[in-house]
Design a protein that fits this description.
- With 169 residues, the protein is mainly alpha-helical.
- It has one domain: Protein Binding, DinI Protein, Chain A (2-Layer Sandwich).
- The protein is built from 5 helices and 3 strands; from the N terminus they run αβαααββα.
- It has a 3-stranded parallel beta sheet with strand order 2-1-3, covered by helices on one side.
- It is rod-shaped and about 85 Å long.
- 10% of the residues are buried.
């Protein structure tokens, strides 16, 4: 029983020692990310691609509206069922094309976003690592995932400085 008690005390001091040695910090990842030099160009390129895809999608939607109007005119004019079937099939194909385009566009936009933002994310993570190493931090958290961080150092300014971003204050 004494052995068990001694082991328990040693274990408690070890855990307490770890907690006392651990050094915690936090950063505002999003605010730093938006200020990294060059990211505005990447975001402009993303917005340009998004607009281009939206315009193409709108053209397809307008084509569908036009074909729907043609179909309704034919249906109201008493066109043959064979003619209406051809127009219905045409509309069905256009709907499918628009759906496929929307899906492909979303994927293309996500892929481009990853491609353009990855270098900035890597740069930011490297700066965080440097600040962590220099300050001997055990953990650095992003504030967007923390509900409470009173016993943690705010390293946002240090990471911004590491990246060469001037402070906004």
């Amino acid at each position: 029983m004494k052995k068990y008690f001694i082991i328990l005390i040693v274990l408690a001091f070890s855990v307490t020692g770890f907690a006392q040695k651990a050094k915690f910090g936090h950063v505002d990842y999003a605010s730093i990310m938006k200020d990294i030099p060059g990211i505005d160009t990447a975001q402009t390129n993303l917005l340009s691609l998004q607009q281009e895809l939206e315009d193409a999608g709108q053209q397809m939607a307008n084509e569908i509206k036009s074909k729907e109007a043609d179909y309704l005119r034919l249906a109201n004019s008493g066109a043959s069922s064979a003619m209406l079937k051809v127009k219905e099939d045409e509309l069905t194909k256009l709907y499918a094309r628009l759906q496929e385009f929307a899906s492909n566009s979303e994927q293309e936009l996500q892929t481009k976003q990853l491609e353009l933002l990855k270098p900035f994310q890597e740069k930011l993570l490297e700066a965080i690592k440097v600040v962590a190493k220099n300050g001997k931090y055990t953990y650095i958290f992003d504030i967007s995932t923390l509900a409470f961080y009173a016993d943690s150092d705010d390293l946002t300014k240090a990471v911004r400085a590491q990246l060469g971003i001037k402070d906004k204050e």
